[in-house]
What does this fold into?
Amino acid sequence: MDAPSDPYLAPELVQRTIVGEREDGKRVRTSQIIAISGTSVTTESGSEYKLLKPKDDYIQFVEEYYDEKWDWENNPLRYIK
It folds into this structure.
């Protein structure tokens, strides 16, 4: 997920988006996420995305930050509501 650029923005006003690379290497930033089901994400624009496994350095960062293992294959965005 993308972090807010304004540190003074209230958390409930932050638009949840995903920033990443497609398989062809092109960088993508989604519109606001409106639904998540396992590894499938639907955005406000109506686009649907299938999440692939993140890069190893990101996995390491998240698991160290939250001090737990995540289910990257089935539920990579479990903290988003």
User: Anything to note?
Assistant: The mean pLDDT is 83.
